[in-house]
Amino acid sequence: MMKLYLPVTFVVALSASLMAQGVGPDVIVGDLHEVGNYAHVGTIDAFSVGTTSCNVGNQNLNWFQGTNQKPVIGQTAYRIMNGRIEMIGQSWLKHGFF
Fold first, then answer.
1. Which of 2, 8, 61, 78 could form a disulfide with 55 if both were Cys (CB 3.0 to 4.6 A apart)?
2. What's the CA gap between 74 and 97, in Å, rounded?
3. What is the rounded distance in angstroms from the CA atom of residue 2 to the CA atom of residue 98?
4. Coil, strand, or helix at residue 59?
5. Domain coverage including residue 83
6. Rounded CA gap, 69 and 97, in Å?
7. Does residue 27 fall inside a structural domain?
8. Which of 28, 26, 32, 76 is nearest to 53 (CA)?
9. Residue 77 and residue 39: Cα distance in Å, rounded?
10. Do residues 14 and 7 lie in contact, with contact meaning Cβ atoms separated by under 8 Å?
11. What is the pLDDT of residues 18-59, one digit of tens each?
């Protein structure tokens, strides 16, 4: 009887996770590249990071140049210090261009 419970449990868990997925476009940052570090002033250091965006959703994404119909991307920098995660910087939003 135990052999039957394992496949049934797997099917129920899989179907529950599939039902939890949203419908529509879903933009993620798929890659970070071209990291730049610029001269610092005092204790302030400036960085830039390029991104590659991907639509992992199940519908097309509006991405129109010259309008507000495009994704925006925010970035936050963290470090691990003394066993704790500490936020050390946050960016303004950048527009996802072509």
1. 61
2. 14
3. 54
4. coil
5. 22-95
6. 11
7. yes
8. 28
9. 17
10. no
11. 555 678 998 899 898 999 999 889 988 888 888 898 999 999
The amino acid occupying position 89 is: G
Cβ atoms of residues 74 and 56 within 8 Å: no
Question: How many domains is the chain partitioned into structurally?
Answer: 1
Give residue for tokens 């590659």. Answer: 52
Sole residue written with tokens 């960016």: 91
Residues 9-16 have a mean pLDDT of 50
13 belongs to a structural domain: no
For residue 15, the model assigns a pLDDT of 53
Residue type, 7: P
C-alpha–C-alpha distance, residues 47 and 32, integer Å:
13
Coil, helix or strand at residue 39: strand
Q: Is residue 88 part of a domain?
A: yes
Residue 10 lies in a domain: no
